[in-house]
Amino acid sequence: MGSRSSWGSVRKLPSGRYQARYCVEGQLVAAPTTFRTKRDAEVYLSTVRADIERGHWVDPAARQVSLGEYATRWLDLRPGLRPRTLELYESELRLHILPALGDLELTKITPTTVREWHAGMLRAGTPGRSTVAKCYRLLRAILNTAVADELILRNPCVINGAGTESAPERPIASIPQVFDIAEVIEPRFRAMVLIGAFVGLRLGEMLALTRGRVDLDSGAIRVVEQYQELKDGTWVLGPPKSAAGVRRVAIPELLVPELAVHLDRFAAAGRDGLLFPGTHGQPVRRAAWYRAWGRALATIGIEGMKPHDLRHTGNTLAAMTGASTKELMARFGQSTSRAALIYQHATRDRDQQIADGLNGMIDAHLKQRPARRPDVSG
DNA sequence: ATAGAGCCGTGAGTAAGCGA
DNA sequence: TCGCTTACTCACGGCTCTAT
């Protein structure tokens, strides 16, 4: 006969050891281990009771769940992830997280475990810092869910700043450079360069453009979807990166004839015909575009510029026209002012140039006339 | 403003294709 | 078969949206 209270009990097993059990939500839960003395079992029960009262109780069954099992389930329960993100998470888990931590039970993962895993990657130098930060963020996200599921008390990912990545400022193509690139790039990509720079579409958005989305009469492009290319080479047509990505963007008038020529020569037939079709009717492959870009830049001797930098050009030029941040966000499909500001760094540089120019004019003016002190007496 | 989370871009390495 | 080009795969690095 064991000792009892309203919620838990201790009993002596045939082995002579003591087992503590208690009732949670109508279920009888046994302690994960047995105890040598009845007193030890009772102490255990009292700590469990205290945890329950503080809201800190964790199901002992959860202690058996390994990170590997939990991470797999975590991914399964996120059907809303975009395909590319799913691919990314799977490879981060497979390559960097699970080999090191996958066999550990959730409750065995301590801040020290995480710290050692994280420091180990940084020390090794592979993967790069950006990937390390990504892996850390994914682990933290998974363990946050484990906290919410009440499988662990707190998240052991507590390294300050480990989840953030620093992004260097990107170069910006000047208007002459944009046209230089457009001039020498494979002709089927010419319009892509111009649209990228002066309409500022994201690559996936350009790939999903069809004849029907381009209205040369009113001079506008409707962006309503984007194409993503997966590892296995399949294509996924989906919504743009954010809700703000669905938009109508006006085309600078001088670009209209360029687009007319492109439609004529390169776009697939029909209203649903892709603007930038690949050789087999599918959207043109990213790699083909990057290669063409690389060759074009090599031809004209520009270094370090990447296709996505065209979008910076478009944003920055648009900012220089005096567009407000709101207007820029609408044009470039950004949903936060922070994103818009990322693209406006060069405008601050430009402002400095303006100030410098003014300075020169004032300087020239002052040199032409005798110095006169400002009259501050009256 | 910052942290957390999600998404996209890039390029090295390798396989496949192809003409000489 | 060789040597070159193109296509493909994979893993990494960077950007940006959302929540707080």
The number of distinct β-strands equals: 9
Number of domains: 3
Q: What is the percent of helical residues?
A: 40-55%
For the biggest sheet, the summary is: 4 strands, antiparallel
| Number of helical segments with 4 or more residues | 14
Name the strands of the widest sheet in spatial order.
Answer: 1-2-3-4
Low-confidence stretches: 1-6, 372-378
Rg over CA atoms: 31 Å
- CATH fold call of the largest domain: hpI Integrase, Chain A
Q: What is the residue-mean pLDDT, rounded to a whole number? A: 72
By CATH, the superfamily of the largest domain comes out as Intergrase catalytic core
Strand fraction equals 5-15%
CATH architecture of the largest domain: Orthogonal Bundle
- Class of the largest domain, according to the CATH hierarchy? Mainly Alpha
Structural class: alpha+beta
* Cα-to-Cα separation, first versus last residue: 103 Å
N-to-C SSE series? EEEEHHHHHHHHEEEEEHHHHHH
The coarse silhouette is elongated
Please provide a written account of the structure:
One of its GO terms (biological process) is DNA integration. This is Tyrosine-type recombinase/integrase. GO terms for molecular function: DNA binding. Belongs to the 'phage' integrase family. Residues 168-356 form the Tyr recombinase domain. The structure is a single chain. It is elongated, with a radius of gyration of 31 Å. Helix 6 packs antiparallel against helix 7, helix 6 (175-184) packs across helix 10 (286-300) and helix 11 packs across helix 14. The strands form three sheets. The chain has a four-stranded antiparallel β-sheet with strand order 1-2-3-4. It has a three-stranded antiparallel β-sheet with strand order 5-6-9. Strands 7-8 form a two-stranded antiparallel ribbon. The protein has 378 residues and is of the alpha+beta class. It folds into three domains: 3-57, Double Stranded RNA Binding Domain; 64-148, DNA polymerase, domain 1, CATH 1.10.150; 175-368, Intergrase catalytic core (hpI Integrase, Chain A, Orthogonal Bundle), CATH 1.10.443. The chain has helices at 38-54, 67-76, 83-101, 111-124, 129-148, 175-184, 187-198, 203-207, 256-265, 286-300, 309-320, 325-332, 337-342, 345-368; strands at residues 3-4, 8-12, 18-24, 27-30, 214-215, 220-223, 226-229, 235-238, 247-250. The longest helix is centred in the last third of the chain and has 24 residues, at 345-368. A hairpin with a 2-residue loop joins strand 3 (18-24) and strand 4 (27-30). It binds a DNA duplex (20 and 20 nucleotides) through helix 3, helix 5, helix 10 and helix 13.
